[in-house]
């Protein structure tokens, strides 16, 4: 049984996709806090609690787009998974790319899941709802491990 809100970091530069994801999570039954950052540089500053994110909570799960400005999501994934303090955070790649190279590279960089964003609105909401259902209702996340 969940006794606290699940902390989610959504790394997404498309405001429309971010809004849809937030709406889908809002309709779910899991209590969660979603923080949205717009690029890879912001994501790493958030995760490392650098200004302006010094008081940021460590996320329980990260939803990561690959095609980001300033620092690509592929680089962000490699940095997360090579950092002793961050590598246990599950990373769900949520991107428009269906390229086999991106899928293979994401899994070789230790992504926990790879999901291609559907272009259809109803399908997109269903995907976001499925992420919430699976990762926040069924998967056991390492609570407390990241609270330093």
TrEMBL record:
Protein name (record): Response regulator
UniProt-listed Pfam families: Response_reg
Organism ancestry: Bacteria, Pseudomonadati, Pseudomonadota, Gammaproteobacteria, Steroidobacterales
SMART domains named in the record: REC
PANTHER family: RESPONSE REGULATOR RCP1, RESPONSE REGULATOR RCP1-RELATED
Domain Response regulatory: 7-132
Gene3D superfamilies: 3.40.50.2300
Leader sequence segment: none
PROSITE patterns in the record: RESPONSE_REGULATORY
4-aspartylphosphate PTM sites in chain numbering: 65
Organism, scientific name: Steroidobacter flavus
Ranges in a coiled coil: none
Keyword list, A-Z: Phosphoprotein
């Amino acid at each position: 049984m969940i006794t606290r809100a699940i902390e989610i970091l959504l790394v997404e530069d498309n405001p429309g996709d971010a809004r849809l994801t937030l709406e889908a999570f809002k309709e779910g039954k899991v209590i969660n806090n979603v923080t949205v950052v717009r690029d890879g540089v912001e994501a790493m500053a958030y995760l490392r609690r650098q200004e302006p994110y010094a008081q940021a909570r460590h996320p329980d799960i990260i939803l990561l787009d690959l095609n980001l400005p300033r620092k690509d999501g592929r680089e962000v994934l490699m940095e997360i998974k090579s950092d002793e303090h961050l590598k246990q955070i599950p990373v769900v790649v949520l991107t428009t790319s269906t390229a086999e190279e991106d899928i293979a590279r994401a899994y070789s960089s230790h992504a926990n899941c790879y999901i291609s964003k559907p272009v259809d609105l109803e399908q997109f909401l269903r995907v976001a709802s499925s992420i919430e259902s699976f990762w926040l209702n069924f998967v056991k996340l390492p609570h407390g491990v990241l609270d330093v």
